[in-house]
Amino acid sequence: MTGLHEELAQRKRELRVRQATARDNLSLGQRSELSAKVCRTAWAWSESETLSSIMAYVSFRSELNTRPLITRAWEAGCEVLLPRVVPRSGAMTLHRVTSWEELSVGTYGIMEPTAAGENAETMVSRKLPAAVFVPGLAFDIRGGRLGYGRGYYDRLRASWETSGLYEGVSPPLWIGLAYDMQIVEEVPMDDHDAIMDMLITEHGVMNCHNGEFFKG
Ligand SMILES: Nc1nc2c(c(=O)[nH]1)N(C=O)[C@@H](CNc1ccc(C(=O)N[C@@H](CCC(=O)O)C(=O)O)cc1)CN2
Ligand SMILES: Nc1ncnc2c1ncn2[C@@H]1O[C@H](COP(=O)(O)OP(=O)(O)OP(=O)(O)O)[C@@H](O)[C@H]1O
């Protein structure tokens, strides 16, 4: 690693610790109230765009709780894809999930689609969701994102870019879901880091390309 890379990695590590601590300090009541608000806004936006499929994540630690969003999507007949990590390669497989019963505790203690292995029945590899709701420790309004430092989402995006799956279709929109306190001035970014198209917080929806903001 060059000196510059090491400096960037160090800034990321510091921001990770700071933001994880700050997020952990939100009370359970605050988390649940803010999560409900963000999920309502995220679903209202998804409906207005008539999305037929979304990729979401199941929350862990003090992350914004996506349960209300996933539940609403199921109720509305919107397809929900959830990831399962492959820790050895750093890849994620996507699975179509239709109920909480299809999940069990996986790597890192995160609830994941139970089906394992390449032939899992629920696995979808040739179909892209219309939108990807992304977890993170910190975001900035230009779409910068800081994750837990294993590059899972960066690799997923890179794999889609090289897969040919984008041909003739609009690429999925990448949307960071966050409490407003997770938005920082600037996330240190590497070239490989996936950029968000939009951010949704309890205050509303932000378009990271043009800075437009819609109150939620
Ligand atoms: N809900 C949710 N699911 C997700 C993610 C996420 O951020 N949130 N991920 C987003 O990519 C992936 C999981 N990424 C993770 C990466 C590292 C650690 C972790 O525990 N890291 C240690 C740090 C030390 C180490 O690197 O071993 C830690 O935080 O203690 C957890 C999850 C896939 N699924
Ligand atoms: N497309 C890729 N191919 C291979 N390695 C990658 C790719 N993207 C990122 N990585 C590697 O993943 C590691 C973590 O990257 P980074 O610190 O940006 O993670 P992050 O975005 O915060 O984490 P996450 O996506 O897991 O939440 C780095 O060592 C990086 O080199």
From TrEMBL:
Belongs to the 5-formyltetrahydrofolate cyclo-ligase family. NCBIfam families: MTHFS_bact. SUPFAM superfamilies: NagB/RpiA/CoA transferase-like. It catalyses: (6S)-5-formyl-5,6,7,8-tetrahydrofolate + ATP = (6R)-5,10-methenyltetrahydrofolate + ADP + phosphate. Substrate binds at V58, E63. It comes from Paenibacillus agri. This is 5-formyltetrahydrofolate cyclo-ligase. It comes from the Bacteria. Its EC number is 6.3.3.2. Keywords: ATP-binding, Ligase, Magnesium, Metal-binding, Nucleotide-binding. GO terms for molecular function: 5-formyltetrahydrofolate cyclo-ligase activity; ATP binding; metal ion binding. InterPro entries: FTHF_cligase, FTHF_cligase-like_sf, NagB/RpiA_transferase-like. It holds the Pfam family 5-FTHF_cyc-lig. It is an enzyme of class 6 (ligase). One of its GO terms (biological process) is folic acid-containing compound biosynthetic process. ATP binds at K12, R13, E14, L15, R16, R145, L146, G147, Y148, G149, R150, G151, Y152, Y153. Its cofactor is Mg(2+).
